[in-house]
Fold this sequence. Notes:
About 65% of the residues lie in helices and about 5% in strands. With about 170 residues, it is mainly α. The protein has a two-stranded antiparallel ribbon with strand order 1-2. β1 (about 85-90) and β2 form a beta hairpin. It is globular, with a radius of gyration of 20 Å.
Amino acid sequence: xxxxxxxxxxxxxxxxxxxxxxxxxxxxxxxxxxxxxxxxxxxxxxxxxxxxxxxxxxxxxxxxxxxxxxxxxxxxxxxxxxxxxxxxxxxxxxxxxxxxxxxxxxxxxxxxxxxxxxxxxxxxxxxxxxxxxxxxxxxxxxxxxxxxxxxxxxxxxxxxxxxxxxxxxxx
Length: 171
């Protein structure tokens, strides 16, 4: 790996979005390997984990929790249903509205995957005091909330709010 240049005005390794992206990329690779070993693609697992965490849940809510687009959510639900891991029930009055729940087999698979992810987390954080892990999780939550608010602000009023966030006067 190439070392950063000492003359750089700001080291890439000191830029928070870069570090978060790198950490996320490594975690995604690790969880993808776990999913592969258990016969899943990562997006299937992400949908299954949303269902397992919030069931019964609508496909729209799954998309919100996972940030997966609705077409991919729909395909993942269909695969989970075809594999006997989930049930999808449509509303009698409106077929577009559905609720998804894990089957008993799906619940067992979900429980196994959660236990394995817990074991990975224990390996990752096990030597840290519990308070440090809680602080880390709190900081992640804070970052997520602040970034979401900033993004929503910029989406509403792009130029003006972005200029304000960057500390510039809008021209």
